[in-house]
Amino acid sequence: MTTTTGPEPAAVPVQNGPARPAPLLDVVVPVYNEEDDLTACVDRLHDHLVSQVPYPARITIADNASTDRTLQIARRLAAESGEDCPVRVVHLDLKGRGRALNQVWSRSDAQIVAYCDVDLSTDLNALMPLIAPLVSGHSDVAIGTRLSRSAQVTRGPKREFISRSYNLILKVAMGAHFSDAQCGFKAIRTDVARQLLPHVHDTGWFFDTELLVLAERVGLRIAEVPVDWVDDPDSSVDIVATAVADLKGCARIGWALAAGRLPVEQLRRNIGRERDDGPELAGVPTGMTGQVIRFATVGVASTLAFALLFLLLQPYLGAQAANFLALAITAVLNTAANRRFTFGVRGRTGLVGHHLFGWGVFAFGWLVTAGSLLVLHAAAPGAGATVELVVLIVANLVATATRFVGLRWIFVQRKRSRKNPAQQEIA
């Protein structure tokens, strides 16, 4: 019997015969009261793995506290399986697809772990394209997607609407780049899974989303494979209740990320990929191109906010006071936006120091803009608010270049120097 830490019950693997060598691929089928569909699923999956997958593979049936004959059928299938593609059974005393996948994947001795739903709604011809990027080392996680243009999907309008709405929410609220979080067809390198899974806490249907969001934030490469998918009209999943639970999960994981309760930076150092974060240009430091683009986007938004605040405050406070307050307000927002959006720094670590540095940058910008106003008023005492604003925007361009260099130093260079003090990179 395997053991687990904490309150989770132990998953009990049912062994059949002598120990077999570890496979390259372990395909998990999580089941709960699936006595009618399990045999057909395992037979079809077994035939596909034997005939179409040129790697040693195994099927693991993860029984989630079934109350019908599912466990007995699973044990029979395991006992009848051969050496070409063995079948094993893992029994859990509590329900939950996420719980089953977490426990089985964490303990698997295979190099790659995957899962598919028992209804096999996804065409198994997508299995090799799913695992190929992981076998080659090109990617860390692979998912089937029903939302690609080349995917062939048959399902009702209600499911289609809910699925697309949910994935749109993920893109907007979580900044997700993957297209289909809930397709029941995924694979991951086992060494990566062991690093991520202790930090994935959902035990139900949100498990997939939580894992993918964390993987993306850590900087792992997620491969997407368009699939052919046919809806199972007899599915017992309550899609409305599942969608509500998923939205609650989004709020939980979003709060955990914002509060810095997930060790994203540590995981990124351990298993994340070093990415260029934009096209490489000769003589440009790694990652700087993408940062300049995002910094410019934040800068445009900050400039518009500054202009609006200045024009609102100038009639009541005068040019200098309005400039100071508008700069102070936008400086805080600018630092927060660049910290998260431009340079990808999240959590509370260094938050106070970053904002103090941002205020230092603000002070420099204020000196530049205040000085430009003094020169303007000395040269043209009757200049109106529009002329003042134009001069301030031009002065802000000078301050902006300094702001980018300063923020990049504190967010990127200091972080790299802490990782490897002997190799400090000069931006």
- Helical content class: 40-55%
Mean pLDDT over the full residue set: 81
Gyration radius, rounded: 27 Å
Which parts are unreliable, with pLDDT below 50 for 5 consecutive residues or more? 1-7, 275-286, 416-427
Structural class: alpha/beta
Globally, the shape reads elongated
Task: Kindly report the spatial arrangement of strands forming the biggest sheet.
Answer: 1-4-3-2-5-8-6-9
Strand residue percentage: 5-15%
- SSE order: EEHEHEHEHEEHEHHEEHHHHHH
**Main sheet overview:** 8 strands, mixed
Number of helices: 13
Query: How many E strands?
Result: 10
Distance between the termini: 54 Å
Protein described:
It is built from 13 helices and ten strands. The chain has 427 residues and is of the alpha/beta class. It has an eight-stranded mixed beta sheet with strand order 1-4-3-2-5-8-6-9, sandwiched between helices. A two-stranded parallel ribbon has the order 7-10. The protein is elongated and about 95 Å long. Residues 1-7, 275-286 and 416-427 have low confidence and may be disordered.
